[in-house]
Amino acid sequence: MNNKIFINQSDLKESGITVFTLFTTTGTLLCCALPIVFVTLGMGATVVAMTSSFPFLIALSQHKIWIFVFSGVMLAISGWLMFRPGRACPADQGLGVACSMAHKWNKRIYWGSVVIWSIGFFAAYLLLPIRIAIDL
């Protein structure tokens, strides 16, 4: 009896894009959201220490529009790959189990990425105008 499990190439592509999307959305959180949240909470010295230790954060924050656009496009591609019509797992029992397990983890990573991107977007573009509007 052959107990080898073969992985479908489309599942690998979907997993790779989903993991890459997680890293791009985490980048939006690091470059743009965390410094704004720290300054809003009165921890400006923390932002100075972060930019001193990691000077690339300054370059990333200067291009935050492109970072958000790129990560948003990656989220859209990843979502389409996971929820596209006609997506099905193989009929073979071993392959079907591996496929459904990979799809379950991909969905978890995807929705985690959506939450991270949404937090980053809120902090980078909406938090300060809301704070100014309510005069805090």
Walk me through this protein's architecture.
This protein has 136 residues and is mainly alpha-helical. It has one domain (11-133). The chain is built from five helices and no strands. Helix 1 packs across helix 2, helix 1 runs antiparallel to helix 4 and helix 4 (64-83) runs antiparallel to helix 5 (93-133). The model has no long low-confidence stretch (mean pLDDT 81).
Tags for this model:
136 residues; mainly alpha; 5 helices; 81% helix
Strand content: under 5%
Secondary structure: helix percent: over 70%
How many individual helices? Answer: 5
- Mean pLDDT comes to 81
Structural class of the helices, strands and pairings? mainly alpha
Please give a quick description of this structure.
This protein has 136 residues and is an all-alpha fold. It is 81% helix and 0% strand.
Secondary structure layout:
Elements lengths: L8 H32 L3 H10 L2 H7 L1 H20 L9 H41 L3
